[in-house]
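Structure tokens
________________
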Amino acid sequence: MENKNKTVIKTMTLLNLFLTHTKLNLNEVMSLLHIPKTSAHRMLSSLEEIQLLDKDEDGYYTLGLLFLQFGQLVTERLDIRKLALPVMKMLRDDVEEAVNLIVKYGNEAMYIEKQDTTQPVRLYTEIGRKSPLYAGDSRIILAYLSNKEIETYLNETDLQSIGQGTITDKQKLRNIIEETRKNGYTISRSELENYTSAVAAPIYDYQGKVVAGISVAGLEVRFSEERLPYLIEKVQMAAMDISKKLGYNL
């Protein structure tokens, strides 16, 4: 906390109030944040001045139109979801397993789209869920970072066991990353949840950069050695279809 800007933290705390409140007045902000009236007024006025908040004639504040512009930019930059969804649906129907779309989010991975399995017993992955880059299907993102980024991540990250198959040995993880790059896919077993498996492949943009990963995930019993080649082929084909939609050209 010592290295963080306290003004920024306080400002974000105030703005976060509008995640659960459509509008708030000065007194309500004071009460919710437990801050003096002068502090609340100063913060609200500053946010209004830079158009992050709007104030109506009754003295109520709402999120400003600038957030709409930011939101539009986010939507445009997440077009990969729209492009990937038809491919994900086809993949799910073909393999009858859950399909996930994964991107890097800070030092973690985030699931930004999903298609649930048609199987009666299913895994539940929530859109917006985050997971460590070193474990499970999220590893497909880690594997395609630069060597420098990977080493920095490994040096700064404590590889904690999540499932009974989580890889916690850093040299073993390096070896798996090298194998993933060579093969173009990664396989995980019981890394994020016991008795589950996943196969993931990278998605490239028009510059040839890996911007996301797609995976099929399900109960480990359905990922037998005999079935794995079929699943790998299907996931890689889906990843390439999405990559081409993003402008990737071999």
Summary: The longest helix spans residues 228-245. The two ends are 46 Å apart (CA to CA). The mean pLDDT is 91.
